[in-house]
Amino acid sequence: MKFSGCRYIIFTDLDGTLIDEEYSYRDAEDALSIIKKREIPLILCTSKTRAEIEIYRNEIGINDPFISENGGAIFIPENYFENLNFDKRIDQYCVIELGIPYTRLRGAIERIRKGGYKIKGFGDMSVKEISTITNLGIREAELSKKREYDEPFIIQNGDEREVLRIIREFKLMVTKGGRFYHLTGNNDKGKAVRILTDVFRKNGFDGETIGLGDSENDFPMLRNVDIPILIRDGPREWNTRILKILGRG
Ligand SMILES: [Mg+2]
């Protein structure tokens, strides 16, 4: 079968992992060329949108499946696998959908705001505003606004714990990425990684999975790979929330 000779699959986060704070993957270029030469599937698994991920895939020159918006969906290029069950076709992809529609997430943000809490999501921000907060260029900020399964937000004013409690009452989930909280359905990177790993196994893969990430929202992914690699937050710093989860904070 197609993946029976494959020894590794690599799942990687983008921000703070494959790419640096200037959104460049220059430092990873040597590693990327080895990965490509050895034909190791490289699965981008990020809170970014499909539109943003497509830019990186094109630039890096990879054609492997990817996981968008914190496990909201798995996008698989047509004919990539011989054996595959999927939910729907979107453009040139077979899609396994795990998240809930963006309009429902926006509804929750608006209800929380009506309750008197000052929170602001990407849907409330102009492209220019997103560009200022994230340091993304205007074009990239535009792509980051094309949300399908995950709403990044900030709490401007109010009790963080109270806001997070209300979100859980709505049966939605919130995780913390590098810059934003992320509001999602009951999906996370870990579930998506598990499902996609199973698909690879059904197509002959018998090797080990590697996962790389730096933030709290990467933790479910790191727990669902054979070889988890936690990237430092800065030259000396580890993510303090992750240290707490590990009992080392
Ligand atoms: Mg990150």
Task: Describe the strand arrangement of the main beta sheet, using strand numbers.
Answer: 5-6-4-3-2-1-11-12
Report the oligomer.
single chain
The ordered H/E elements are EHEHEEEEHEHHEHEEHEHEH
User: What is the helix tally?
Assistant: 9
Number of strands: 12
Q: Which runs of at least 5 residues are low in confidence (pLDDT < 50)?
A: none
Bound molecules: magnesium ion
Helix content: 25-40%
CATH superfamily of the largest domain: HAD superfamily/HAD-like
Using the alpha-carbon principal axes, give the shape: globular
Termini separation (Å)?
45 Å
**Percent of residues in β-strands:** 15-25%
Number of domains: 2
CATH class of the largest domain: Alpha Beta
State Rg: 18 Å
Structural class: alpha/beta
Q: What's the main sheet like?
A: 8 strands, mixed
Q: What value does the average pLDDT take?
A: 93
The name of the CATH topology of the largest domain is: Rossmann fold
Descriptive report:
Helices cover 33% and strands 22% of the residues. By secondary structure, the chain is an alpha/beta fold. It has an eight-stranded mixed sheet with strand order 5-6-4-3-2-1-11-12, with helices on both faces. Strand 3 and strand 4 (73-77) form a beta hairpin. Helix 4 crosses helix 5. The protein is globular. The model has no long low-confidence stretch (mean pLDDT 93). The protein binds magnesium ion (MG). Magnesium ion binds at residues 13, 15-17, 178, 214-215.
Which key features would you list for this structure?
single chain, 249 residues, alpha/beta, Rossmann fold, Threonyl-tRNA Synthetase, Chain A, domain 2, 4-stranded antiparallel β-sheet, 9 helices, binds magnesium ion
